């Protein structure tokens, strides 16, 4: 019944973030927020429906900063370390109906990274305009706009990929923690008159 959450690229006071999340997510169900340190939070929900609602209704932000949310699992590290991958919500448009199931959508989304979960509308096939899938994407990803899918008859179709939120990454360090502009490895040249 838990998730791990952390702010991307910004450290805000833990107490303020905790109060913000309690107000925002506490309306859905009872929860307990534990501060794990270094901007990482372990959030326990009293019921699975509340946890799933939080996962399904992302992406989330706190005062304009992206909050990455992942389902917690036994043995999962509660330290951020180098952020080489990030859960990103994607919209897949033009998915053939025969792929509109967990296996088919996971197969398509796996081109982008590791599929984590789908929102309830996608899972229940309420609207077939696009599928919303949360994918753990690498910082080295090119974030393609299209995926070419080969069909059973040998023909191909293009699946459009839309990113409601696109994380900035450092191409030098290949991490999401910071951008190229704030990279500690870049030597800055200062002009001296």
Automatic annotation (TrEMBL):
One Pfam family matching this protein: DUF4283
Start and end residues of each DUF4283 domain: 2-78
Transmembrane segments: none
InterPro entries: At4g02000-like (IPR040256), DUF4283 (IPR025558)
Protein name, per record: DUF4283 domain-containing protein/zf-CCHC_4 domain-containing protein
Species, as recorded: Cephalotus follicularis (Albany pitcher plant)
């Amino acid at each position: 019944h838990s998730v791990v959450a952390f702010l991307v690229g910004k450290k805000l006071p833990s107490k303020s973030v905790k109060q913000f999340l309690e107000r925002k997510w506490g309306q859905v169900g009872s929860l307990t927020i534990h501060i794990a340190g270094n901007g990482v939070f372990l959030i326990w929900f009293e019921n699975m429906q509340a946890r799933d609602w939080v996962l399904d209704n992302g992406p989330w932000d706190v005062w304009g900063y992206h909050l990455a949310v992942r389902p917690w699992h036994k043995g999962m590290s509660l330290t951020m370390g180098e952020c080489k991958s990030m859960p990103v919500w994607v919209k897949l448009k033009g998915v053939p109906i025969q792929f509109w199931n967990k296996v088919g959508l996971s197969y398509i989304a796996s081109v982008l990274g590791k599929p984590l979960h789908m929102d309830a509308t996608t899972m229940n096939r309420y609207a077939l305009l696009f599928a919303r899938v949360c994918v753990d994407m690498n910082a080295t990803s090119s974030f393609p706009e299209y995926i070419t899918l080969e069909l059973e008859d040998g023909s191909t179709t293009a699946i459009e990929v839309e990113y409601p939120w696109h994380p900035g990454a450092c191409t030098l360090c290949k991490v999401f923690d910071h951008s190229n502009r704030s990279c500690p490895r870049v030597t800055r040249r200062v002009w001296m008159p």
